[in-house]
Amino acid sequence: MVPLPKNAIEHFTHPGHRLEQLKANTKYHCDGCKTHGSGTRYRCNGCDFDLHEYCGTCPRSLSSFMHSHPLGLVVRKAQATRRNERVCNVCGDHVEGLFYRCKDCEFDVHPLCTQLPQSLCHALHPAHPLTLQSTSSSSGWCAICRGSCCSWRYRCGACGFDIHLECVLVPCDPPTQRSVPPFGQPPPPAPPPQSPIPPFSQPPPPGPPPHYGVYGHGMPSGYQQTQAVGATTNGTAGKMMYSLVGKLAIGVFSNAIFGMSNMDFSSFM
Questions:
Q1: Using CA atoms in the order 265, 150, 132, 217, what is the torsion angle rounded to 10 degrees?
Q2: Bridge partner residues of 67 (DSSP)
Q3: Domain co-membership, 162 together with 214
């Protein structure tokens, strides 16, 4: 058998054809996990077949902090031959084609979603790192968009501080009047604000100033509250997860603090 070149792979989703790495700054549809992609991919030109880099190289079995059991890589049957719909337990979008599954728990997750970092640092909560947590943890309110966190989110459990997955990259002003004390220390006394600020675990009051989050953190002009990622099943999540995962992973690797207004997101592409 002739050895494959360094920039080529063979994959069980496209048997009999070699896939070559293509570096192009263009969008495409991954024929493995059936979600969107951009930039470098593995491609069969003759069949117009594309795979995300990770979908082309991800292991057949995976252990992840997201689930207590090993996850197996499976391929979902075509729509005409299946009886029910399944969604990704992390982003809430439909799973089609290639995905990871725990059959015992019926836990499903896109290959790309398994690459979300377990923890990160955010400008609005500099004292403690935020950890990716599931819907089984306490519900809360996103400190940036004011929406209910009914899906996976980045959370500080000690402080009850939550941020939606899709809100982590939103540039915002760091807190100036309120800070989070280190573990084990009581908060310093502060004069009461003109408009009471609710605890992180309580819903926001009606009628906040425009472009300000529930905790008084500045938000960029024109930012609109979005539906939680985990609440979408119409393909919206799939369109943004590829970019989100890439930026978060590279940002964490670079020790970035997310939420900074001067962060250059183009460097995370």
A1: 50
A2: 64
A3: yes
155 phi, psi to nearest 5 deg: -140, 145
Residue type at 164 in one-letter notation: H
Same domain flag for 141 and 231 = yes
- Residues 14 and 72 occupy one common structural domain: no
Q: What is the pTM of this model?
A: 0.72
Residues 105, 177 within the same domain: no
Tokens of 146: 């004011």
Residue 111 is encoded by which pair of tokens?
């290959």
Report whether 137 contacts 122 (CB < 8 A): no
Domain count, the chain: 3
Q: Do β-strands 41-44 and 98-102 pair in parallel, antiparallel, or remain unpaired? A: unpaired
Same domain, yes or no, for 103 and 209?
no
Averaged pLDDT in 10-residue chunks for the chain of 269 residues: 82 95 93 92 97 95 96 82 79 91 95 94 93 79 89 91 90 63 52 46 44 37 40 50 80 77 54
Q: Identify the domain containing residue 137 by its residue range.
A: 116-182+197-269
Q: Please give the Cα distance from 218 to 205 (Å, whole number).
A: 16
